[in-house]
Amino acid sequence: MIRVLFVCLGNICRSPMAEFIMKDAVEKEGIADRFSISSAGTSDEEEGNPVYPPAREELAKHGISCAGKRARQFCLSDYDKYDFILCMESRHVKSLQRLCGDPQCKISRLLDHSQHPHDIADPWYTRNFALAYAEIEEGVRAFLSEVQKRENHGK
Predict the structure, then answer these.
(1) pLDDT at 126
(2) Which is catalytic among the residues 8, 13, 66, 87?
(3) In Å, how far from its chain's centre is CA 152?
(4) What does DSSP say about strands 107-109 and 84-87: parallel, antiparallel, or unpaired?
(5) Residue 88 domain-assigned?
(6) Fewest Cβ atoms nearer than 10 Å: which of 9, 40, 67, 82?
(7) Does 45 map to a domain?
(8) Does 14 participate in catalysis according to the annotation?
(9) Pick from 49, 123, 126: which is nearest to 88 by CA?
(10) Active-site residue identified among 13, 14, 66, 78
(11) Structural domain span for residue 45
(12) What is the overall mean pLDDT for the chain?
């Protein structure tokens, strides 16, 4: 089982979008049973809140549901529970590294796995949910390809 946690600030926009884009991708590839995928936020400000409506609407445009998702804060035990902790921004990486130390090098930015590494801007502020979706999808596809190559190489 490959355990993946996506992280952003509040867990109501980018990280839940990434969670459900990844779940959709592995389902379509017929490998969903090999993954455990979730998301969390570095802040507790939105804890318990549903996915932000414009993020939910952007997912729906692509035929992806995030029904039932509620925001939660990253906790120290998540470090041991997940194999990969994929953040949306450098500041999330730094925040989690301060908290966990990252001795197993599990924490990275999602787009560090793509050909265009950079932070994914927070659509809460930019209002550009389509761009956030596109960048997250790019990162998810690149990450999934990387994981599959590692698995195939290990066999």
Answers:
(1) 97
(2) 8
(3) 23
(4) parallel
(5) yes
(6) 67
(7) yes
(8) yes
(9) 123
(10) 14
(11) 2-139
(12) 96
Residue 79, SS3? helix
Encoding tokens for residue 65?
A: 């549901």
Residue 130 lies in a domain: yes
E strands, the chain, are 2-8, 35-41, 84-87, 107-109
CA distance 3 to 36: 5
Which DSSP helix (H) or strand (E) runs through 154?
A: helix 129-154
Told to judge if 75 belongs to the known catalytic residues of this protein, a careful annotator would answer no
- Token pair of 103 as six digits: 């001795």
**pLDDT, tens digit, 9 for 90 and up, residues 66-116:** 999 999 999 999 999 999 999 999 999 999 999 999 999 999 999 999 999
Whether 153 is in a domain gets the answer no
What are the counts of helices (DSSP H) followed by strands (DSSP E) for the chain?
A: 6, 4
Number of domains in the chain: 1
106, two tokens:
């599990």
> Which of 3, 102, 122, 141 is an active site residue?
122
Domain at 81, CATH number:
3.40.50.2300
Alpha-carbon distance 136 to 88, whole Å? 8
The one-letter amino acid code at 81 reads K
Q: Where are the alpha helices (DSSP H) in 29-128?
A: 53-61, 76-81, 90-100, 123-126
Q: What is the pLDDT of residue 151?
A: 81
Q: Is 91 noted as a catalytic residue in this protein?
A: no
